[in-house]
Amino acid sequence: MGTIHPVTAEKPTAELLSRTTDILTKGGCVVIPTLCLYGMAANAFDEAAVKRVFAIKERPLTNPILLLIKDREAVDALVTEISPEAEALMKHLWPGKLTLVFNAAPSIPDVITAGTGKVGLRVPSHPVTRAVTEAVPFPITGTSANISKEGGVSDVQDLDPRIVNGADLILDAGCLKGGAGSTVVDVTSTPIRILREGSTPAADIHAIVDTLTSF
Q1: What average pLDDT values come out for the chain (215 residues) when binned by 10 residues?
Q2: pLDDT of 31
Q3: Considering the entire predicted model, what is its pTM?
């Protein structure tokens, strides 16, 4: 059963951050805050850890899972190509509520891509999770901390008992803003495709991309 540990909105203490990274490095699962909802983090390169997240969430292995990374530079080792549109969106909207879908590098486990050959990446903007991504040498999963097909959770008090029991640690950053999750954009095609409109309006995305062809 996951220990619920309060954490300030600014960043975890050095002791808590060390404990979190140790759990993730050893194949554990940690519930983390994003701006809108709580998510489940595991080492994306540890297939057993990722499968454990799927099992806790009762999520079909046929569903891809997005990853959280520390910065733009981390993208290079995880994808096969980066289009000008992707560069522009990362420059203007990361860190933030935007997940970009790229063609995955061979190093990405199939359990992450669900055999699609694509991977969704985001640089989180919540300071607690940013601190976690910056402290570990691997990307982490960013799937929502809920049972599959059920709604996301903005307060740890509302976490499903199965999530609480399955996690090794829960970073409680208080009640989050809730609402829609990140907007998901596939940047592997031209034109780009908005797969899901969330917290970042589609109009903002199109405005950035349109500047590339306005000269």
Answers
A1: 64 90 97 92 97 96 96 97 96 94 96 96 95 97 93 92 95 86 92 92 93 71
A2: 96
A3: 0.93
Which pair of tokens denotes residue 51? 């499968």
CA torsion 97-143-137-133 (nearest 10°) is: 40
Using the structure block, give the residue that is written with the tokens 């490095």. Answer: 25
Range of the domain at 145: 3-213
CATH of the domain at 198: 3.90.870.10
pLDDT for the residue 50? 97
User: Interhelix angle for 202-210 vs 84-93, to 10°?
Assistant: 120
Which pLDDT tens digit goes with each residue over 43-59? 999 999 999 999 999 99
How many separate domains does the chain show? 1
- The label of the residue with tokens 């509302």 reads 158
Query: Could you tell me where the DSSP H helices lie in 58-201?
Result: 84-93, 110-113, 127-135, 161-166
Contact 174, 127 (CB under 8 A): no
- Output the CA torsion sign for 40, 42, 45, 48: negative
**Parallel, antiparallel, or unpaired for β 3-6 and 169-172?**
parallel
Cβ contacts of residue 35 below 8 Å, gap of 6+? 97, 124, 125, 126, 176, 177, 199
Three-class SS state of 6: strand
